[in-house]
Amino acid sequence: MNDRIRELDVFLRVTEETSFSAAARSLDCNPSTVSKLIQRLEDRLRVRLFHRTSRVLKLTREGEQFLEGAHRVLDALEEAENGLQNTKTRASGVLRFNSSLLLAQHQLSPVIPEFLERHPHMRVEFVLTASPIDLFENHIDLSFQSGDIPDSSLVARRIATTRWTLCASPKYLSKAGIPMTLQDLQQHNCMNFLAGSVRSTWALQDGSEPVALNVNGNIGSNSAELLRAYAIAGVGIVRLSDVHVAADLAAGRLIRVLEKYQLASEEPIYVVYPSKRNLSPRVRAFLDFLNEKFEAGWASI
């Protein structure tokens, strides 16, 4: 295909310069090279493109017909190349995210309108899952994940940290009372996150000692958003990442409980992507935007 483009380029240059030698000078090659390329083009097309005499070089009728098509092909190629160069320097196209529903809803979605306003040639798509998915198979540009990143081939940039928080609504606490000790939780409706069909234990600490507490409640779900909604509605106590409930705590819809029993350790949150090399402008633009918006931490949004 490259040879065919080269033939077209030489053909057009010969028609412009009206001689093989002049075309060769403008292309910085030998006249014999120009002659061979034109001959090869004619052999492939099985037509004569030029009338050759000692004094003049003129297009044949077939050459004139071919000239119009050659211009269209090379113009289209130039347009495609220019479009690609613009794409390489301008953030445009589709940016696909993967994250949990809560992370997208409470941390990413609020800032997306500003990002799109800055980059009007872009659009974004959210692929929301309870756990990370294969970035390549699902054509994901950026994934937001917490905890350990099992795939070492991925680039993981730490952008924030989060801690687990026990909280409930004022309505629930006024009705059921405020728990003061870990033992008090046995008397409360503790809504649990389900990992598959398994109820997760609540990782807490008593002084310096870690505690894995089995709690009971009348609602369990693998959706943190559903548990959050039930907590706000006054159904029970929930254990969620503070990233997910920061706005609810600030607005007073939820209240922290048993703060002294919370784990002191923090869990990192990463933005994950396939490679540092040859990042597309759309990915680079969002990473820069991410640094700007989340510099002071997630809760600052």
Average pLDDT confidence is 85
Reading the helices and strands in chain order gives: HHHEEHEHHEEEEHEEEEEHEHEEH
The helix-and-strand class reads alpha/beta
The CATH topology of the largest domain is: D-Maltodextrin-Binding Protein, domain 2
Q: What's the count of strands?
A: 15
How large is the share of residues in beta strands?
15-25%
> What CATH first level of the largest domain would be assigned?
Alpha Beta
What is the second-level CATH architecture of the largest domain? 3-Layer(aba) Sandwich
Shape: rod-shaped
**Which runs of at least 5 residues are low in confidence (pLDDT < 50)?**
none
How many alpha or pi helices? 10
Measure the end-to-end span.
52 Å
Largest sheet features: 6 strands, mixed
Helix % is: 40-55%
Overall domain count: 3
Question: What's the gist of this structure?
Answer:
The protein is of the alpha/beta class and 301 residues long. Helices cover 41% and strands 24% of the residues.
